């Protein structure tokens, strides 16, 4: 099952900056994580991703240019996985539930990420 999350999603640099803001209180990061986690979960549910207990996930990251490094971009997997758990589509996002994931990257007119969830159990 595949679903689309319009972006760009925050990268690691934006997450770190949010965590450091407000004298390290992390309030901006907490807000950022809450908003993106909820968004990812709602989009997965709206796309009728079926619940599963174990999955393999592919991420196709689409950026408007090549300014951000792939490892910076892919840090947003955290929001997607936590969103799947929050939406009740996965019981957890640990070793028992995530068999693995893969990432691919390309430049396109509409930034975001195409997430493909392969149900293993």
Structural commentary:
The chain has one domain: 60s Ribosomal Protein L30, Chain: A (2-Layer Sandwich). It contains four helices and four strands; from the N terminus they run E-H-H-E-H-H-E-E. The chain is globular. The protein has a four-stranded mixed β-sheet. Helix 1 crosses helix 2 and helix 2 crosses helix 4. By secondary structure, it is of the alpha+beta class.
Instruction: Please count the helical segments.
Output: 4
Helix content: 25-40%
- Give the CATH H-level superfamily: Holliday junction resolvase RusA
Helix/sheet category: alpha+beta
What can be said about the biggest beta sheet? 4 strands, mixed
CATH C-level label: Alpha Beta
Distance between the termini: 14 Å
Strand content: 25-35%
Assign an overall shape. Answer: globular
Q: How many β strands by DSSP?
A: 4
Task: Please mark out the parts with pLDDT under 50 across 5 or more consecutive residues, or reply none.
Answer: none
The domain count comes to 1
Helices and strands, in order, run as: EHHEHHEE
Mean pLDDT: 95
* Annotated CATH topology: 60s Ribosomal Protein L30, Chain: A
Query: From the coordinates shown, what is the CATH architecture?
Result: 2-Layer Sandwich
> Over the alpha carbons, how many angstroms does the gyration radius reach?
14 Å
Strand order, biggest sheet? 1-4-2-3
């Amino acid at each position: 099952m595949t679903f689309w999350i319009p972006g760009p999603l925050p990268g690691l640099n934006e997450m770190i900056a949010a965590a450091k803001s407000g004298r390290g209180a992390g309030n901006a990061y907490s807000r950022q994580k809450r908003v993106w986690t909820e968004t990812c979960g709602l989009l997965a549910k709206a796309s009728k991703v079926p619940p599963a207990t174990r999955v393999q996930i592919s991420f196709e990251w689409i950026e408007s240019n090549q300014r951000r490094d792939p490892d910076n971009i892919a840090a947003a997997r955290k929001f997607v996985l936590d969103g799947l758990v929050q939406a009740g589509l996965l019981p957890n996002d640990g070793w028992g539930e995530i068999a693995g994931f893969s990432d691919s990257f390309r430049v396109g007119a509409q930034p975001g990420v195409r997430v493909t969830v392969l149900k293993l159990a």
